[in-house]
Amino acid sequence: MICAGVLWVAQLALQPAKVDPVEQQIRIVEALAAAEPPVLGVATQLKLAEAVEPRLPVRARRILMSAAATLAGIHGEASRAKFLVIIVNQMAPLDLAEAERLARRIVPADAKAEAWDAIIRRGGAESRLAMEQAFGAGAFRLETARARIQNGGPESIGVFAQLLAAYPSRPSEQDAEFLGTVSWRMLERVESLALEGLDRALRDHWVPERRVADEMRRRYPELYQRRRAQIERERPPKPDQKEPPNIFDSLPFKPEEGSFADALGAARKLESPIQRSSALLQVSRRADLDGNEQSMTAVEAMEAGSALEVTDANRLFLFSMLGRDFSKRGDHLRAGRAAALLAQSFAAICRCETAACDSLEGREDCAEMVDDFAEYLEEEEISPDDLGIRNISLSARLEILKLRKMLGLKKKGLFGN
């Protein structure tokens, strides 16, 4: 498959000069996408459509239609739905009717609502009709509906009535919580309907916040007594949303300040392998070090980074930077070692190199990681060949970055610069 993609790219590169350069570049990316495993191939098509849409909207629509057709090769309803949500979001400003048709193909409730929200936001004067269609298609937890209800405008009561009528016959706990929180906000405007919504939500296991429960007991004793057992249940704790540690997070000290010995000692004392390897890398780049001191400190950083899980994205970026630093210093042996560790990590992150890779399950961050890594290499002017990496998806993303430059589009750098 990969050989076929490379052959296509070679053939396209040899086409006569009369072919529009931008179109030729688009075809190169399309050829690479066709040769990728299904999951990453669709992701490449979506990135390509995103790149060309500002300048070539008609071409972007064609690419999105092709991506939608390719979804037949993706295994699992959840995986197809995630891609369809992205396609609908990108299609909505180009062809609203086609976006609606694609949204109707989505089965999972959360994905269905997310897709229809995108359509409603793009609907303009027709957005009210689009909301009716969304409810009719089974999309219940619409954030656009929640926003219109909470804004309290003249249409809020009508939207709430639609929402109540669209409440699923077999609701999930998320559906019940959505209805309950929205109904509570409507009590001052349309009490009878709001009480009906609260009663349904409580019946279906919504657990209100303690503040709401106390107010309900005071203002609506009949409802409180009827649903008391549910109202007084303990709310489950919210999951911890703390972001995982990142190699680019700030450190507890500044590696470039103070003496080399103090900075090195502080870096070695850090318990987290991510922080320790990051600090050692930054210490190795101090301008007051000689070549030997830089190399020895970088070797320590490489050893600390080796303790990270092979699938940890931090490991990928660490060895990229170390490989570049060793290469710049002419230390090709250690640059080769860093490249080998990098290639090992890059291959492990996605585990997606054949046609059997046809599901997003366990690979949700894979495509984004390829994008981020391509941007890093492009920003730092590093060739994958220099790092010993051969990956068709990475090549496709790098070609998309070339295309963006051809189209005069700027993209904010991965690290905000």
Topology as H/E string? Answer: HHHHHHHHHHHHHHHHHHHHHH
State the end-to-end CA separation: 36 Å
Structure classification: mainly alpha
The helix tally amounts to 22
The largest sheet, given as strand count, sense and whether it forms a barrel, is:
none
Cα radius of gyration in angstroms = 27 Å
Beta-strand portion reads: under 5%
The overall average pLDDT, rounded, is 85
What multimeric state do the chains show?
A: single chain
User: What proportion of the residues is helical, as a percent range?
Assistant: 55-70%
What would the principal axes of the Cα set say about the shape? globular
Number of strands: 0
Low-confidence stretches: 412-417
Tell me what the structure shows.
This protein is an all-alpha fold. The chain has a domain of 96 residues. 65% of the residues lie in helices and 0% in strands. The longest helix is centred in the C-terminal third of the chain and has 19 residues. The chain is globular and about 80 Å long. The chain starts with a helix and ends in an 11-residue tail after the last helix.
